[in-house]
């Protein structure tokens, strides 16, 4: 059986989640590997969520937020951008493959982009294979 | 010119005595006698007679800024600061943990401080290339000039050159040794959260047993919490009973923060810590 990655998607309520909704209502096809968690803003994301997701067996983490400047709360994603950039550097320096974590800005009207990003990211994680470094062995 | 530790010690005693006698401060944080010369202890002098117990020698590496947040807000404190320690104080002022007007900083310009475990001089590793305190009220001694200024990030080169897999193997080996004594957290001047995320049960952020996954969660999250705040004193690695080179990772994060956001931690009391701040023109490239 071919490897099907588990991907955690953390999506902002106002843009990416609505964008995912749009992708659904316009009947766009994208892989089912993504498990979406809705948060009210990308700045709600504690970087520990990402580390913890990897520990609990996620093969990849995709974070979606509004485009900078379009945040529903004006500045949330600008804080999130700095925070997630640091989280990414930490993951890289610890030695996990950098391709397993990705941040994308997807607005509510970009259903197409959402489908594209998920397809591409799923393929990328599939090529990397199962994530075993962080995973807690049972 | 060699640093005269005895001279600094004498000046420290006089200043401490003066400040305590006039009642300008109720407490002087400096170094006191340990069980031998190599192990000076953190010491809080509370009256003029105590000032005689203060010592200063080449093993006084401890960062006294750690003890500032232990006293109630508004306590007038005088504190002995070396270069890195003064940055810690600045960072605490930025975070509104202490107030500038409550503090008297006794700056110590110094080099050649030694690690008490190995006897090795720590300048090139963890002072961030600084020898003079960034902020002080009273400078004990002359400013140091003419010492080699190393880039604080030089030691990182060999680790940055490793490929991902080798780095993973390196860090896994280091973190697996961790016994979770939390000495790094206790020694760190910036670690003041109560409770620490790792002590919380709801939500449970990570495993608490000293196994490899729990250690990884604890250390990575701690690196993130100290991003843009770590002032490179190296106390975490010196406090570590199993000698994990935590300072390397902290340095790397500090380097990235400085490159991405253009501001080093604890250099000016006007700054805001980088992660509670933003610029509209931060580039999206930092996420690539």
Number of helices of chain B: 9
Low-confidence stretches of chain B: none
| Quaternary organisation of the protein chains | heterodimer
CATH architecture of chain A: 3-Layer(aba) Sandwich
Mean pLDDT value of chain A = 92
Based on secondary structure, the structural category of chain B is alpha/beta
CATH topology term of chain A: Rossmann fold
Descriptive account of the structure:
The complex is a heterodimer of chains A (138) and B (288). By secondary structure, chain A is of the alpha/beta class. Chain A has a single domain (7-128), classed as Rossmann fold. Helices cover 41% and strands 17% of the residues of chain A. Chain A is built from 4 helices and 4 strands; from the N terminus they run E-H-E-H-E-H-E-H. Chain A has helices spanning 16-25, 47-55, 76-94, 111-128; strands at 7-12, 34-39, 60-65, 101-105. A 4-stranded parallel sheet of chain A has the order 2-1-3-4, sandwiched between helices. In chain A, helix 3 (76-94) links the parallel strand 3 and strand 4 (101-105). Chain A is globular, with a radius of gyration of 14 Å. Chain B folds into 2 domains: 5-139, no CATH class; 154-287, no CATH class. The radius of gyration of chain B is 19 Å and the shape is globular. With 288 residues, chain B is α/β, with parallel strands linked by helices. Chain B has helices at residues 5-21, 83-94, 123-126, 157-161, 164-176, 183-187, 212-225, 235-239, 246-261; strands spanning 27-32, 41-45, 77-81, 103-107, 138-139. Chain B has a 5-stranded mixed sheet. Chain B starts with a helix and ends in a 27-residue tail after the last helix. The longest helix of chain B has 17 residues, at 5-21.
